[in-house]
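Everyone, carefully examine this protein record:
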Amino acid sequence: MELNSRTAPATHGRELSALQRALCILVPQTISLSLSIRELIRQGYLFGAKVLVRPLTERAVTILYLFKNPGGLEIWDDGWDYRRRPKLQQMIEYLNEHLLSEKFDSLKGFTHDLNSATHGDPFSARWNIVLRDDGVPVFLSSKNPTSPTLADEICAEAIPWLAATMGIMSAAFGQGESAASEPGFEPGPTIIN
């Protein structure tokens, strides 16, 4: 957040590319979702944090997709209509092919867990069930202070998407001159607001 405050002014008052305009919307949302996930984990609301992983992932993947596929910017600029935009699974597959050189043989089903948590199908129960002291499984409707492994899982899912977002931000905007001129400034990703 400190870096955001120091570098955001460098993105104001200048002509922006179509990608930069899209990033002005998507990056702050991605950061906000990351902060929300972090706060929910700190407070013990692990199921809520897990549900937010999908919208975080979707925004980060959209950022990567638009960065790698400038043709997608036309659909974005036209309102990112759900009938025309690619589905999350399709964007993941596109990135596997064009960004990762098909590192993974198949990413089929990549979005299954994300969708499960978000849409509340029966499999979503795995993220809000715990065992009582007597071994009886219960579904939590509040805090979950007894599942550190789940907290770690959520963090492991969220952190790479935030890192990818910061990388694209840095590539699209570079380092802000106002921040770089301050004593003690060390280069890092540029974040806009």
Q: What stands out?
A: The longest strand covers residues 129-131. DSSP finds eight helices and two strands in the chain. Strands lie at 129-131, 137-139.
